[in-house]
Each structure stands twice: as C-alpha cells, then as structure tokens.
Specification:
By secondary structure, this protein is α/β, with parallel strands linked by helices. It contains 5 helices and 8 strands. α2 packs across α3.
Length: 201
C-alpha cells in the first residue's frame, strides 16, 4: 500500500506572502489554463482537501457552482481545465477547520476543531490517497512545526511582491530542509514548484 502524503498547496508571492494585508489576493493574479492543468494533476492524486474555514469559504462555494453548471455571471467564461478542477474539487472530502460550521455530507464537508495536527496525523494514517492542505500562516505554522506531518509543498509562486500581508512560514518555529522535486515556469510568469520535506536527522 502506498504511503499517504500531506501536501500543502498555496499561492504565494515572490516574497512569500499568501495574501495582502486585507486578506485578499494581489492583482493581477496570473493563473491560466496551463497552471490549472498542472495543479489538476496534483489534485487527481488526492481524495481529501483539508483547509481553514477562510480558504473553504473563499474557494469551495464558487467551484461547486461551476461544477453544477451554474457559475457566477460576473466573471470570465469557465474554461475546460477550470471545469475539470471544479469536478475534482466536488469529488474530494473537504476537512474544514472550524468551531462554527457543521458537517454537510451532501457536499462532502467534514468539520474538525481542537488539535488539528492530531486530526491530520490520524487521517494520514488511514487508508486513502493524498491529503491536500491549504491554510493561513496562523494555522499552517504549528502544523509545519510537527515533524513528519507535512510531506510536500506545492507552491504557485507569482511574479509579485507585497509590502504587507502574512507570509507562508510566518509562524514556523523550527528550520525546514526541502528538496526540490519538480519546477515548471509558465508563460504568464508564475513558477510552480513542488518540494519534499527532508526527514529531520
């Protein structure tokens, strides 16, 4: 049986920020069909997306609408790779870190609270495919601090620098050593890099 991995997936700027000071993405956010196809390949290896409530509410409802064939009318037309991502997303179990949301079996939403790291470690030890993890720095830092919990980082690095805003590793308290597994440069200027966390000696 293959080993189940926890793979952090985040959009980051060149200086490592995951949002601006208002908690929003920078503009322009360069993420086209080629980048989407690459990320889709990673999501095809997963059956679970663990995420903070903010990420969930920002991302999931929109793509659920797309998958249902009813995308918001105020945006650009949905492309084939985006449609594919939407269908991948609705097929995943979404583990949401929240103290106020409730489970929703109809949309595969499972809510967890308390010691998130312990929940993820238990989930990782259960049979299944990879677990994608997306969260803000306050949540991700303590998880990245736990040796052996996070296996890889799949980062979309954008050609942008922000003067303020949280950084991906702001709350990390120990050093990490990463090995580059794959990197690809896209015409829009983004680089997608996949790093494996080296086991501490």
């Amino acid at each position: 049986m293959s080993v189940r991995k926890v793979v952090v997936h985040m959009q980051v700027t060149l200086d490592g920020r995951i949002s601006n000071s208002a908690g929003l993405f920078w503009e322009p956010l360069i993420f086209g069909d080629a980048e989407t196809r690459f990320v889709n390949d990673a999501f095809r290896s997963a059956d679970t997306w663990a995420m903070s409530r903010g990420d969930y509410e920002f991302v999931v409802p929109y793509w659920e609408q797309v998958a249902a064939g009813d995308p918001p009318t105020d945006g650009e037309p949905v492309t084939a790779p985006q449609q594919e991502f939407a269908h991948l997303l609705v097929g995943l179990t979404k583990f949401v870190f929240s103290t106020t949301l409730a489970d929703d079996p109809g949309t595969r939403r499972v809510v967890i609270s308390g010691d998130i790291g312990t929940h993820l470690a238990e989930l990782k030890n259960q049979p299944g495919r990879d677990i994608v993890l997306s969260a803000g720095a306050a949540t991700l830092g303590p998880l990245a601090d736990r040796p052996g919990l996070i296996d890889e980082y799949l980062l979309v690095i954008h050609p942008a620098v922000l003067a303020a805003g949280p950084r991906l590793f702001d709350r990390l308290t120990r050093d990490l050593v990463l090995d580059l597994c794959h990197a690809q440069v896209f015409d829009g200027g983004a680089v997608i890099a996949r790093y494996r966390v080296r086991d501490p000696e």
